[in-house]
Every structure is written in C-alpha cells, then in structure tokens.
Amino acid sequence: MLDKRYDHLAVEEGRYEKWVEKGYFTGGKDKSKPPFSLVIPPPNVTGKLHLGHAMDTIPDDIVARYKRMKGYDVVWVPGVDHAGIATQAKVEARLREQGISRYDLGREKFLEVAYKWKEEYAATIHQQWASLGLSVDYTRERFTLDEGLSKAVKKVFVTLYNEGLIYRGERIINWDPELRTALSNIEVVHTDDEGEFFYFRYPVEGMEPLIVATTRPETMFGDAAVFVNPKDPRYKDYIGKTCVNPANGEKLPIMGDRYVDISFGTGAMKCTPSHDPNDFNLAKKYNLPFKTILDETAHMTSDCGKYVGMDRYECRKALVEDIKAKGLLVKIEKIVHSVGHSERSGAVVEPMLSKQWFVKMRPLAEAVLKMMESKDKIHFHPTRFEKVLVRWMKEADDWCVSRQLWWGHRIPAYYNKETGEVLVSETAPDMDKYVQDEDVLDTWFSSGLWPFATLGWPDKTPDFDRYFPTSLLVTGYDIIFFWVSRMVFQSLHFTRKIPFKDVLIHGLVRDPKGRKMSKSAGNGVDPMDIIAKYGVDALRYYITTSSAPGLDMRYNEEKIAAARSYLNKIWNAARYVEMTLGDDFKPEPLSRRGLGVLERSILSKLARLIKRVENKMERYEFGAASSDLYSFVYDDFCGDFLEMTKVSLTSGGEGAAKTKNVLYHVLMDIVKMIYPYAPFVSEEIYLSLPGHLESLNVETYPELPRSYVDYRSEKEAKVLKEMIRDIRNYKSKEGLEPNAKVRLYVAPSFPFKSMDSYLSRFAFASYIGEGAPEKKATSFAYEGGYELYVEEDIDPEILKGKLEAEKERLLKEVERGKRMLSNQGFLAKAPKEKVALEEEKLADNERKLELVENRLANL
RNA sequence: GGGUGUUUAGCUCAGUGGGAGAGCGCUUCCUUCACACGGAAGAGGUCGUGGGUUCGAAACCCGCAACACCCACCA
Q: Which nucleotide's C1' atom has the smallest distance to the CA of A627?
C-alpha cells in the first residue's frame, strides 16, 4: 500500500542501483527484437553536470525507455570526453594554486595528474547519471582516450593523411597565448569590445604624411607595407612611394590593392603579414616579408627593439607614448570592435603565423552537402536546424586540428631525426631514428568518431554491425558546428553511412531573466539541488515538457513544483484506486461486456489517448504527448471518472467488480505512459499494484484496440458531467444550499436516462421523470437539452436575467452558424464533415434557443 | 554585412488553416471519507504591426517594428 504522501526521496532511494544490477539497461539480450541505438553526448570530465546535460540526456532516456516498452532492443552507449583543452586548463589551474606549472611537472607527470582528475570527475558524472535515472548501458561505456577510441583516431588521421585530406602547413591560426596553443576558428568567440583606434602620421618624402589608423599599434613592428585603394583619389600619387613606420623608423612601401575599403578609417591600412589573416593574404600576393613579432605568450620578440619582452598591451601603451612624443600621433578614437577570445581561457586570441596540422574540409564537406540533399539524409527535429549544418558545411574552412597541449591524442606523425622526413603511421617507427610530433589533436577530432568508434569501429564488431548507424542523437543547437558536423563528415567518410538517422535539437536553459547560465555570473542552477528538493521525476518532466523543441527555456522553479504536484496527483489517484480495489482484488482481462456508460467512456478516451500519445512519442514531441496525458489524468480520470465511480462502487455487486477492474487497467496504463518521463514514481506505484511484473522496466507499452472507442458513451458521460455542473452552478447562483433537493424532468426524447444515481449523489437531484412538470416548480433549460425544475421558490428576476444572458449567447451562436452555412464559398469548398458538423451545431443551438425563449415567455 | 528565432492572459510558455489554451498568480467558496502538492466556481487576451492568399488566418505568404541568437578577416 502506498504511503499517504508522495515522498520523492523515499521513492528514488536505491532504485536505480537495483535496475542497473538487474541489467534492465543492458542491450543485446534479445536479438530477435529490432535494434534501437543511441550514444550519449559525452560530458566533459571538467566538472559537475549542469542543466544543459539534463537537456541532452533526459530526452534520450525518455526515448530509450519508450522504445524498450515498444519492443526494441535498445542500446544506449554512455561515456565521457577527455575534453583536451578544457580539462587541461582546469588541471593547470589547480596546479597553479599549488604554485606549479605544467612545465615544472613535465609531460608524463602532468598526464598522471590529468588522469587522476579524469577518474575523480568521471565518478561524479556516474553518480549524477544515476541521479538523473539514465538507462544507459554500462557494459558498453567508453572514454574518448580509451584504447579503442585511440585506435580509431590513429586510423582516421593516417587515412586522411594518405588521402591528402590532412596536411601540415604554415598558416595564420588563432593562438591562445594563455594556454599556449592553436585553436580552430570555432573555438574563438567574438565579442564587441571597447577599444581605441590610433591615428598615426607616416612621413612620406616630399609629400604630406600618410595617416594610417590601427587598433593594434604593437604589431607595427611586423609591418611590411602600407596599402591604399588604387581607386582612392586621395592616395593616387602615393602608390609606389615609401613611408616611414613611426614605430621603428623603417621604410615601408606604399602599395595599392582593391581590398582596402576607401571609407574605413583613413583609407590607408598597415599590413602585418604574420599577425593578420588578410594581411597574410596580401603579403602572399605581393611577396612581402613575414616577421613574427609576438612569442607564444604574446610578448614582444627581439624584432621590437627596446620593447622586447614586454607584454603586448604594455608595449602598445609605451609605443603610443613614444610616437606621441615624436609628434606622429594624430588622434585616438574610442571604438567598439569585434575581438576574438579563446572559448576556454577567455584570453584575447592572437592571429599568428604558425605551422600546424589541418584537415582539408572541402571534399569532406561536399559529401555532407550531397547527403543532405539525398533521400537518405539525416532528419533534424526541428527541421530548420538542417540549415545550420548545411550552411556551416558550405562555408567551412580547413580545420586546424593540432593543439600544443599534452592532454589528448598525440598526433601519429614522426620526424626523422636526421633528414626531417615526415612519417605518418598508426604504429610507431624505430624511435631511435624518429621523434614523435609533440602536439595532440583537437578534442573534437575524437568526439567526431564517437557514434561509430564507440560501437567498435574500425573493427568489424557485432555491435557495429547491429547498432550502427545509430537511431537518434539528442544535442543542443550550440554544438551543431562543433560536434554534429564533425560526426557527420567523419562517419560518411569512414563508414559510408550517416552516423544517426534522427537528430533532436534542444535549446539552452537560461536563468529566469533570460540570461545564459554561467558560473561567473553565479546564476547557474545545480540539477542535483532540484532533484533533492522536488525529485528527479519532476525535473525530468519539467525539462521535457516546458518548451517547444529547439527553443531556449527560462528556468522556472514554479513549473518544477507544478510537475511535482502532478506526480503527487497521480500518486494519490493510485492510492485511491488501491484502497478501492481492496486486498482481494484480482485483475481480470479487460472486456467491454457489461460495462456501464462511464466505464465505456473512460476506456474509449483511453484508447484514443494511447494512440495520440504514441504518435507524438514517435515524433519526439514530448511536450505535446505529455499534455494530452496530463489532461486525461487530471480531467478525465481524476476529475470525472474517479469521482463518478464512487457511485457504482458503493452499490457493490457485479457492477462494482467491473468498475474496479476498469479503474485498475486505466491506472496501469497511465502509469506505463508516465513511466518514460517519471520512471521512479511510476515504478513505485506499479509495484504496489496487483498483477505487476518484476519491474516497469520490462513492461510493454499500453495497447487498447480500436473497438474500445465509443463516442456515444463519451457523449453520454459528458452530458452527465454537464448536468451536474449546471445544477451545481444553478444552485450556487440562486443562493441555494449545495445539497438542496431538486427534481429533474427530461423530455421523452432525452437519450441518456441512466444517470439518476449519479445525479442524486453529485447534484442532490433526487428524481428524474418524464412528461409535464409539477405546476409549482420553477424551471430552467440547460445546454444538454434537458430541463430542470426546482421545488424551492426562485427569484424570477434573477432567473430572468440568467435566461436573457443565455438567450443572448445562443443567439450569437445561431447567428454564427447561419452565417457560415449561408456562405456559398464555405458550402462549396469546406470539407463535408466540417459542413455537417456546423449543421448539427446549428440545429442543436436552435433547439436550445427555443427552449430558453419558451421559458422566458412563460415567466 | 549575411542568416535564424521570438513577439499569444499579470508572469513563464504551449498551440494550430475551421469557435483562444496550460501552469503559476489573482477573486469567491470549501478542510466531505485519494490528494490543500487538493476541490468547486470565476475574472483576465484587438494572439506585435501593416498588407496579401483563403469560403475561413493567431496559424500560410510579403513588408515593418522590438528583442534575442548565430555566422563573417572591416584594418
């Protein structure tokens, strides 16, 4: 028997561990079932899970649990991501607190520390998966740095290299001077920062000085030229001349190129080939010299004269002062411009000329574009996110994959110590002769292999054969570029298959004011706190039902409380059913034979509900599915059926037994349908009901044949409900006590006459009769087309007012119906069923109107 | 400079080519034997704005506005 209160702590306690022990989440036990597979978006081993992880994993879990019930062999692969740069940054920060740098430790020692860190956080993540109730298959758990993934990474790197799709080259890359590593373009976050625009005078022999504006004076030591637009009349005569660099007195050629925007700044632009991607291109075009003037920590190199060793900003300040002293500073303007920051360290990214490894994107991207135009494309939900993938694939530049980090997959490239010859190989060569590349790969390089490498690729494993491509991926729109795109092209290239058939995209959880949640802003919410306070089932329900797919949601604690109230409602309904059934209840198979109207009605609604919910679950529309279920639970089941059945139950006998059986089956089906959302509380209820299996985890999804659909019974039940409501309303408005006795007469044609016991119990309407009412009674006409006569006297004025209002309403309805039905366009073009429906409504309203008018006339 | 999304009840948000919805909040009433994490009744909305398509538009199309986000090398 259930406790009086739904206590989420008691309900959740120890349950998950039991499920895992029983192996309910282990896939592949029954290969006769169709496979359904997913991979978890592997969380970074950088810290605790946040609400974003809940958004990733709870929908996965709902689908996994639903699919198991629907008879699929579900495999959900869990795992964690080493998260190269993010983790290394954290580990280094922790070391720094102890006054140690990674260089003090050296590579090997540092990796030991990092592995310990990984173990620590992986343990936390496991705990939190348990708290969230994720039905992942731990027998298949993976880690991006484990042996299998490492093998896959090497294989992919070497193959791409041999195919000419990975190359090593000197390019302008984004350099994080704090973490001292290269970054890919998408790891750079641009923000509009306030800065200064410095206007300097560049002396030109025999002419007016050229005024050049820059936001980055310190890079002037690396300048190779000054450019103007050849179409710019102001500077026509300058092209071909030389000017003097105010920073170091060196002569710079003045050159013309149409790249220069005449309207921007002064129309004259300095060119720093080694520290700006555009300048790099210009320098290549005109064969200008490259000079690197910043080191890996963004301090000035020896090419910068007396400024050597200064930090870039220190240098900027000092240099501007010096130029000002020389009288070559024209002015300083405040500007807001876009500045690139490292996604991880926040440091201002320095564009630097550097030798790095790149993945050649065009051929790989083209394959994705072709796939997305084919019949076998990946289906995104909502579909608009397909455009995000496609756009990025159209624009993707070559991907810089080498990182000057230690935590990650070391690049399988080896350099001959003597000749410098490059050898790229899955197996290490003779290390006496060769030295391995120091760098590791971008963490997304391995994440990009996740769906197939976790299933065994490059080996031909039974899992890979059976479960790949995976069925569904759930992730946020913010990592379509980072992750989804990489998985897609790697998968297409190496397995010739898409990595997943469906992608369900979710939005971000924001704070109540709509701001992004972040640690620094201190507005984050720890899901574990929510779970402690409201229970994980409430959190799961909230996460999956409180917004439309793909849209951001604002964190709203009230909704979590509401979710909890809902679960509490189901809990108490179950408690009532249990109490009602009694100890000796034995569930019988359902049958429609001998059921009363209310039973037939609730089963009819249930049959239709199951279909609707199922359709929505199949389309991953959890919000829509649960709102159907919600109104069934609240209104149809708790509000109407539970209340009404109190009548037939108290009457005892055959009818009561049948009602009990229906109560039991409807509740069971509700519990099964709520299970994917709220597995803990539903399991508790399920196990307390008779006729259960060992766990809901091995149950099947509810089914109720179409033959249970019975609109007539639904209508009859509805009329009963309306009559009760009307009578109660009526009494309340007339100032009668709720239990005032009233008498009912219905017309001989009234179709639903089997309701007297219900009316008596819920409306104290003691009698249903036919024919002419007693003379002294006061009458009122109601929506359902019946009449009520009350024995007590009623103020005729109040009654009149009420009738007038009703008449008013009905007149409008009738008018609307008539207007529609006299519209030739409507009659000609609207669907037949719609027209018929309107005709029926009109007739109904006209009949009611007549009743009301008669009443008024007789007052 | 491109692109996307949002705009619906006081708040947070669903919804969808055929009569405006939920939760919370608010008003009135009720601790009656599942549940006060409850029940009953109720107030509250020109569905951002201007056009168009349609028999019919809050929904579809076009423009506009506000807000949010993404992409892009404006020195």
A: B22
